[in-house]
DNA sequence: CAGTGATTCAAACGTACATTTCAAACAGGT
DNA sequence: ACCTGTTTGAAATGTACGTTTGAATCACTG
């Protein structure tokens, strides 16, 4: 039935992932993708059904490798008797992320850019898609961060995790431009690994920062309902 | 010649700013804008020339108020003999930003959302527009941060300022959704002021975090050229 | 109140998009 | 070699967009 022509799907996925990473999902047309992939325009709808599903397939190629790896790293940390400190928790991302380079050339950079696009472009279906498939893993991450920052109220943690997500996503979306500037002005060749390593101390310090009681803040007494809190932190963490 | 019908431009600007803030520039059509503003479709091109120029006009309404205020705050800090600490530098944003609420209801939130959209949507002309008009003011900010963090190499500062920009921009772009979650799960009504106040300790700690010498990092010796560095940090800071 | 320039309006233009259609080309099994 | 189901190809469909057009309407001046 099928054999030698499997690669049409691959050609589409490869072309799509690079164009998506460069220009975002909304600003990349199926015509650009099929032209670059040297396949017929109708192939995308034939093989993937729709543009939406193509976007999900492109991300899924990386997620199905990354997420199980992260999951097992999280389990290792959770199994420890002593609580982990925050930099160690964040550091577990490094290896699984860099292993994506073995999946595909520049895989790590591409995946992170795609993740950034998933947030900044309006792609509600991606949010749902990721959380539906990998919500359990994300739960473990939130738990680990909570354990490593026991002094932080849940609400503060919620905001800081999103601040962090913003740093990551924004940096990765504009990653190439930033790397070029860094190279030109500081003679520093910063690859994706370098950026990740620079992010960790920044994020660790930010997340664990002392809570500052602001003058103007009129906060309702923290009256939160426990279970929903964690679920929602993680739900909104996914794309 | 003109008198009572000035408000067509205002109606367009008001409708456009809210739709832009909600859905981004690319995903808001002139038809949506003119429908909401209850004006004719052709009015936008008649009064503003093009969609691009409308986008700039929407942002300009806030920038021309905010930036001079920031500029004078920066000058005050720069005039001090003792170096300022980082939280104080970042804190000067609070008042000028909140004053935008007097310009328009929910002005602060709207402006920050628009700024976020300016980054996440691909709007190269906005980058140029802001830097062209307000580059001098941004220079002063970079200088202040440098002074308050003398232990940081320029390249590290460069990256951390962008990490911070990502936090701000991303948080503001998804501000409403986050605020809703916070309200539902933590019984915390977090307005835009609350978010800004939460951001400051996070950003301060992140930017000023100790530099961590990563194992894997193979960095070329810091060989930077002084003037270009500052210029580029700020150039890439603008939208 | 006639005339003039600024504004509004409905309609159309040209372009780009995702998706559909259906015939042609292709494969593997018998 | 022939059928059968899978994949490709070129073309068309329908929708939405930003922009342009030219006549109609308005507001003001002389």
UniProtKB/TrEMBL annotation, chains A, B:
Residues 6-66 form the HTH tetR-type domain. It comes from Alishewanella tabrizica. SUPFAM superfamilies: Homeodomain-like, Tetracyclin repressor-like, C-terminal domain. Keywords: DNA-binding. It comes from the Bacteria. This is TetR family transcriptional regulator. InterPro entries: DNA-bd_HTH_TetR-type_CS, Homeodomain-like_sf, HTH-type_TetR-like_transc_reg, HTH_TetR, PsrA_TetR_C, Tet_transcr_reg_TetR-rel_C_sf. Residues 29-48 bind DNA. It holds the Pfam family TetR_C_30. The keyword Transcription regulation does not apply. PANTHER family: HTH-TYPE TRANSCRIPTIONAL REGULATOR RUTR, TRANSCRIPTIONAL REGULATORY PROTEIN. The keyword DNA-binding applies.
């Amino acid at each position: 039935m099928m054999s030698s022509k499997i690669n049409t799907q691959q050609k589409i996925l490869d072309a799509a992932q690079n164009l998506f990473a460069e220009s975002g999902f909304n600003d990349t047309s199926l015509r650009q993708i099929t032209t670059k992939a040297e396949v017929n325009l109708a192939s995308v709808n034939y093989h993937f059904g729709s543009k939406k599903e193509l976007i999900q397939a492109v991300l899924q190629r990386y997620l199905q490798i990354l997420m199980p790896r992260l999951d097992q790293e999280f389990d290792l940390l959770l199994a420890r008797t002593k609580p982990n400190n925050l930099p160690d928790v964040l550091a577990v991302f490094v290896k699984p992320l860099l292993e994506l380079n073995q999946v595909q050339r520049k895989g790590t950079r591409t995946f992170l850019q795609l993740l950034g696009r998933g947030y900044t472009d309006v792609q509600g279906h991606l949010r749902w898609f990721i959380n539906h498939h990998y919500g359990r893993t994300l739960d473990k991450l939130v738990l680990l961060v909570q354990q490593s920052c026991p002094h932080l109220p849940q609400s503060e943690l919620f905001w800081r995790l999103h601040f962090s997500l913003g740093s990551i996503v924004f940096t990765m979306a504009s990653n190439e431009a930033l790397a070029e500037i860094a190279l030109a002005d500081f003679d520093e060749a910063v690859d994706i690994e370098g950026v990740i390593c620079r992010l960790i101390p920044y994020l660790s310090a930010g997340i664990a920062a002392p809570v500052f009681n602001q003058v103007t803040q009129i906060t309702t007494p923290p009256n939160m309902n426990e279970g929903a809190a964690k679920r929602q932190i993680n739900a909104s963490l996914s794309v």
